[in-house]
Amino acid sequence: MNLSKRPDDMQRITNSKLAEAFIADQIAAIKAQVGDNKVLLALSGGVDSSVVAALLNLAIGKQLVSVHVNTGLMRKGESEEVIEVFRDQLDVNLVYVDAAKRFLNALEGVADPEEKRKIIGAEFIRVFEEEARKLDDIAYLAQGTIYPDILESDSVKAHHNVGGLPDDMHFELVEPVRLLYKDEVRMVGSTLDLPYRMVNRQPFPGPGLGVRCLGAITQDRLDAVRESDAILTEEVYRNRSENEIWQYFTVIPDFRTTGVKDGKRVYEWPVIIRAVNSVDAMEASIPPIPHTMLNRITRRILEEVPGVCRVLYDLSPKPPSTIEWE
Hints:
Number of strands: 9
Helix content: 40-55%
Structural class: alpha/beta
Order of helices and strands: HEHEHEHHEHEHHHEEEHE
Mean pLDDT: 90
Strand content: 15-25%
Distance between the termini: 29 Å
Largest sheet: 5 strands, parallel
């Protein structure tokens, strides 16, 4: 359960039969690790934590308490959607914590991306510790950590749920999908009969928009990246391109650029559009997006997002670039 390296002979999960075997093995492993104890699950609503929720529900049922933390770094309408799906539709025991001010205060003035990730990771743990104390000091914390998180934390960047965890954490981790790649997690999710939109949801980094608002986070840029990301998502769905692009999002860097609005000079933010195709998140290519679609996205961002006067399109594959900018 806590292995940090994927065994060389571990077979990739490429079909439902292999996924069923993995599910059976993990249910047994979770039961053996947890016993009769309760488990707190960090539920973001993304595919990784959703699959973990389903596995834990099968393994331990009512011993599971899921916690969704609104960090203030979520996409537009994301926390509301998580509540609707998990609490209202799937009847999951869900605790909602609005910690937006807490996270943003902790990140104030912090520009280094590794430091941001560690602060976010530490704050997550502190919130979960506080919630655990309200529930008779739960000793286990479940996370949707996957194998690329571990690989990149070793050599590229610390993920908040791996290298960003505090040393004095009081939880034992339960991470049933930590040795899987993203495509394998989706296969397991499909085999578990999770909703299609949940299994195929856009990948979203644990630190959220905190690593898409580059440098020290400011409220105006955070608002702008959230609004521009929502426009991009709307237009992808409008053009029925959601199944043709693996991941898409916007980024706002920590510098301004000169523009002209209403005949006057302005000095505002650029928005960077990022779109990639990948299978396991270890490599990524750039999908072709029609210029008519890009033009519409650009026009809407410039017209609807305050403080923005330029839109750029990132054409860099992984490697040498990473998918996220920070």
